[in-house]
Amino acid sequence: MVAATLFILLAAVQLPAAMLTTPYMSTVIRLGEVACYMHPLPDEYKLESPAFDKSPVALPCTVVALQDPKLNLAQELQSAFDVFAQADDVWSADFSENVIIQAPEDLHTLSKSQKVAAQELGITNLRLIPASLAQNKLPPGPYFVHYGRLYQAYRLYPDSAGAFMVSAVTDDDDGFRPIDAAAYGEQFPSALTVAVPSRLYYNKTETKPYAGLRLAIKDIIDVKGLKTGASSRAYTELHPVREETAETFADSEWPTGWTFLLAPIPWEALDHQLLPMPSSRCVPRWGRQAQTVSSRTALSNNRKWDTIGGFARSAAEYQVLAQALYGSAETANKTYEKPVTLICPSDYWPVQDEASQEVFETFIVRVENFLGIKRTNIHLADTWEKHRPDGVDESLSEYMHSAFAWSANRDQWLGLLKPFIDEYTEKMGKPPVLNPQIRFKVEYTPTVTKEQQVEGGRRLKVYHDWFYQHIMPPAEDGHSSSVMVLPWTTGKPDYRDTYKAGPQQFTGEGFFFYNIGPYGNCPEIIFPAGSTPYISKYTGREEQLPAALGLIGARGSDLMLADFVSKLFESTVPDWAEFE
């Protein structure tokens, strides 16, 4: 029998004063080097088996469904174990010593030969779930049995990168609760522990196409049962646990403009560096607000600019997420024609780093071959000069230099920072402690006038009209006739221990390659196209950096762009496959 170490941490969920505090337990099991969390199931799953009822030890077990009692039991179990080991990162051979079979109604007992065959597989306890529980059929996979009650198995991972604020599990009230569990303290003493359920519990269907996806949500979006912290201790302290989960979208006349970051990168192999831009920020880059999150259930930085983006390990996985975020029943199985134009702005091509340019060129050729076309080189600044909007004398970069700063920052002050500071000061009797970058924002954002805000919006409208007429027309029925390719990395390492002279004083001024898409309300997908070598200052050896590209689609082509990139990666084998 596998030795399982049991730890129990008691905690209480913070509820409104009118409600009683509900106690709960976060129970951690250690199976060798792997830590797991025991998630309780309802009482109806209590087992009526003496072998399990009397055991005070938390036993790892596997639930298997047997459809036909005439089948070879040992072969069926071994086949199930093989599938589980291949498909799941929670199940392991440690769960195979105790097996619970969900049997057909006509199978009440196991024969002696079946039990002997099971023992030859290393199974020490083999039991049937009574047919009377058929209406409460369990998904197959790993579980724990403790005093006759079944618990789901969640594997615990250390958040060694410090990427998460809280790890949450479902509660009994259609919401979530934080998991107060610690593990791996000897190696990661200050790391949050993240719990992930077995993938075997979830079966994708037409009505549940997203079952089994593991999602991380930025802590500016309300989740029932958790606090929305906005990465701020003061903001977390000010607001109670949320009583409802954010609505996904509200109606809008504008099609979505989002940014998606693909990152099949092993975080532990990043050689103590900041993740390459934009990954170093670990958030979607802003695009023009389109279908927005409700202001009641999400923290808004700026209503005119906020939008929902995604970060996934592969293009195929993101296509599924994109359909959930931006799609509908009508778009679920929609097919799109390929773009007919591949735009390469010579303002930014070629890049200075030769190794990066070689990787980028190879990938762009792949895109050309996939589309059956050759790239179209344009120069944005020259096109602006040639087709300068009426009444405009400045260059593109000069004209757009303050457009975003004026458009966004006044609302950031009046709609977010000032109300938060005022509310906190009134409630706590003192102003909140803010980090240096936010303190800079508090000083700068109130200086933007109403007149500047209006002018910023007007300049963005001028950019829209020019961009749609001369660069990339809006999508028709969700289809973009063109895509634009942009470089996102420089080929140079950016180490974490390189300290800055002071906080980043970012106002949003300037016009850069990463403004092109958001200023045009366009979706963009960013992904590693390959890797470039460098000599690490830590190892003294050659290591690899991801070389990232961005593909921009026309306004309104969010789903089409996700579909295009997914098919692009299906049909080609890019260099970044080594990161998988």
Notes on the protein architecture:
With 580 residues, this protein is an alpha/beta fold. It folds into two domains: 4-201, no CATH class; 247-393 and 468-579, no CATH class. Helices cover 26% and strands 20% of the residues. β9 (168-170) and β10 (176-178) form a beta hairpin.
Question: What's this entry about, in short?
Answer:
This protein is of the alpha/beta class and 580 residues long.
What are its keywords?
20% strand; alpha/beta; nine-stranded mixed sheet; AS_sf; 580 residues; disordered C terminus; seven-stranded mixed sheet; 2 domains
Radius of gyration: 27 Å
Number of strands: 18
Q: Cα distance, first to last residue?
A: 35 Å
- Estimate the strand proportion: 15-25%
Derived structural class = alpha/beta
The geometry reads as globular
Assembly context of the chains: single chain
Mean pLDDT across residues = 83
Number of domains: 2
Give me the number of helical elements.
13
Give unreliable regions as ranges. 1-20, 249-295, 574-580
The helix fraction, in percent, is: 25-40%
Largest sheet: 9 strands, mixed
InterPro entries: Arp1_N, AS_sf
Protein name: Scytalone dehydratase-like protein Arp1 N-terminal domain-containing protein
Keywords: Signal
Organism: Akanthomyces muscarius (Entomopathogenic fungus)
